[in-house]
TrEMBL record:
PANTHER family: ABC TRANSPORTER PERMEASE PROTEIN MG189-RELATED, ABC TRANSPORTER PERMEASE PROTEIN MG189-RELATED-RELATED. The keyword Signal does not apply. It comes from Paenibacillus alvei. This is Binding-protein-dependent transporters inner membrane component. The chain crosses the membrane at residues 34-56, 98-122, 134-156, 182-204, 234-254, 290-313. Gene3D superfamilies: MetI-like.
Length: 328
């Protein structure tokens, strides 16, 4: 009997230990946790691979010699490294002049769009006036309406540019030709009618609506007007939205070829020279594989400034996107 009771006591002790271990460790919860970590890791790695695959492919094509194009055993790492493809693509793109024009155009339009869209967004967020909801609905519609639908009137507007017909009234001529210059981009950006400006106004409006009204009320008590309050109180607290709009605007203007070909058909920018590169390459070679290789190298050269910009600004960009409410 004593041995039986001793065995029961040991069994009870072991059972109690197992219960305490299950209560403390919770193996099922631990298993769920590790499964979630594994699934999340696989998902992140898969998404990163999908995003980086085109860049890795272009880089692999750019650094391989022409003879490696027909070697089916080469997948990523070439047998013969060369930098001649970069030199050829650099010359075909006329990179220095095209880079300068692209940089001036992107920076100029981005700053003007940031200022004009911030003013428009602040007006929709804080000022009360008749028709505000209808006007903001029209602004949102500009996000989804393709620009090709107004291509002809937009082109004619800057081909024969005139303000209220005053130029034709005093000179007798049919407007001023602003094409082949930066003016169509700068005027559109100043009036918050540039590329993607509807989205930028929406971003600023949503951000301004989230700011406490006590900031403005305190400024009004001190005798500051609406514009003074906007520049001295609101703008210093709007850095996340400003960073988001500036980066989006620079990248989209840098990659734009539609408006550039519409307004500046003979001016060299990187997006237009890259688009015309196949025709130029066709005059020096008829090998489609070599043309594709140089096109990949040229695309890599065009993307490189934006990649460098994001590397240096990624911290501020991620923080600004989170605070402006574009995700989550």
């Amino acid at each position: 009997m004593s041995s039986t009771s001793t065995a029961r006591q040991k069994a009870d002790a072991i059972g109690q230990r197992m219960e305490r271990w299950n209560a403390e460790v919770r193996p099922l919860d631990q298993l769920k946790k590790w499964l979630w970590i594994c699934a999340r890791t696989l998902l992140i790695v898969g998404i990163c691979y999908i995003i980086l695959y085109p860049l890795i492919t272009k880089l692999s094509m750019a650094i391989r010699d022409r003879m490696d194009l027909f070697d089916m055993t080469i997948v990523w790492i070439p047998r013969h490294f060369t930098w001649d493809n970069f030199k050829t693509a650099f010359d075909m793109l006329e990179y220095p002049a095209a880079f300068w024009n692209s940089a001036m155009l992107s920076l100029g339009t981005s700053v003007l769009q940031m200022i004009s869209c911030a003013l428009a967004g602040y007006g929709f967020a804080r000022l009360k006036f008749r028709g505000r909801g209808i006007l903001f609905t029209l602004v949102v519609f500009t996000i989804v309406i393709p620009p090709q639908t107004i291509m002809i009137p937009t082109y004619l507007n800057y081909r024969f540019f005139d303000i209220f017909g005053l130029y034709e009234l005093f000179t007798g001529k049919q407007g001023v030709n602003l094409l082949e210059s930066y003016w169509p981009f700068f005027i559109s950006s100043t009036l918050a009618m540039g590329m993607k400006n509807g989205l930028f106004i929406f971003i600023f409006r949503q951000f301004f609506r989230g700011l406490p009204k006590e900031l403005e009320e305190a400024a009004y008590v001190d005798g500051t007007g609406v514009l003074g309050t906007f520049w001295r109180v609101i703008i210093p607290n709007t850095v996340p939205a400003i960073v988001t709009v500036l980066l989006f605007s620079i990248v989209w203007q840098w990659n734009d070829n539609y408006y550039v070909s519409l307004y500046m058909n003979y001016t060299q920018v990187l997006s237009s020279t890259l688009a015309s590169m196949p025709g130029a390459l066709g005059r020096i070679t008829t090998d489609p594989s070599y043309i594709s290789q140089l096109m990949n190298t040229g695309a890599l050269l065009v993307m490189m400034p934006m990649i460098i910009l994001y590397v240096f600004a990624q911290k501020y960009f991620v923080e600004s996107v989170e605070r402006t409410g574009l995700v989550g």
